[in-house]
Amino acid sequence: MTMDEKTLVKLIRSLNKHLPERRKSLATLLQEDAPRVYGRDGSPHRFKKEELRLLASILPEELHDKLFLPIYIEFAPDYGRGAARIHGRLECEVVSKILGKNVEQTDEMIIYRPEVRELRRKLPTTTQYAFFFSL
By residue range, what is the domain housing residue 91? Predict the structure, then answer.
């Protein structure tokens, strides 16, 4: 790895330090009085109960323990300018319904800047940005 690659890796790590060490299931978060996870930097990330209830209304109850939050909105140069990836079958299902998109069941979907804005407006605490870069 060159010095420039090492610098880039450090930059990406610093951009993602807010991401949680461990995500929690929707079922677990719904049971907590103050639903939260902790970032790699130790900072708390709180979830709004109304967002959790909205997600719970979208998925059948038997899937609440399989959706882990926050949902990552993944950015990488590979996706193109202004594009982001949603990864995971349940995550794609939820995002499709929130955005009013008719998407076949899939494990991955690409959304674009206007959709990212709409998703973050509707789910500000249950989604987080994640940054990736392939060397």
Answer: 3-131
